[in-house]
Amino acid sequence: MPLQANAACNFLPPVGGGDPIVKKKVERPKGLIGKAIGRTNWNTDFVVDQPYRSFKLFFTADSSDPSSYPVQAFLKFSDGSNSKVADEQLQPPVGTGRMFGPFQQVPGKSISQVNFRIGANKDPQATGFSYRISVQGCH
């Protein structure tokens, strides 16, 4: 990819700050009822800190064991609505992954956050697997 094309994109910060390349491990729900109810670390939101024309989302597997990762991604709008832009079951080798997008700005809407959801009640085998995610906004 030409250097100029890369320069037009910026990594978005995660909500709460920190490194724009977020490293996580899929966890079980933390609740008394188990898989049906409980807090998880499955959701990660990235702040859209300025207007961008498009967004690229990146997922990379970090676990050495073969795994299947349930991956969903959403564009979240300032009016409280959202749009699902990815819903896949990925089985990438370690150190590899997938870019989703680019997803264009939605006319008449203002994107306030980009959300990754990695993990699902229907796929408990993914528990414990590590990954990295990031989002770029592009001009």
Please explain how this structure is put together:
The chain has 139 residues and is mainly beta. It has one domain (3-138): C-terminal carbohydrate-binding module (Jelly Rolls, Sandwich). The chain is built from one helix and nine strands; from the N terminus they run αβββββββββ. The strands form two sheets. Strands 1, 2, 4, 7 and 9 form a five-stranded antiparallel β-sheet that branches. The chain has a four-stranded antiparallel β-sheet with strand order 3-8-5-6, with no helix packed on it. A hairpin with a 4-residue loop joins β5 and β6. The relative contact order is 0.32.
Please identify which CATH superfamily we are dealing with: C-terminal carbohydrate-binding module
* CATH architecture tag: Sandwich
CATH topology: Jelly Rolls
**Beta content:** over 45%
Number of strands: 9
Radius of gyration, rounded? 15 Å
Output the structural class. Answer: mainly beta
Poorly predicted parts: 1-5
Q: How much helical structure, as a percent, in the residues? A: under 10%
Secondary structure tally, helices: 1
Mean pLDDT: 82
Sheet having the most strands:
5 strands, antiparallel
- Please write the string of helix (H) and strand (E) elements: HEEEEEEEEE
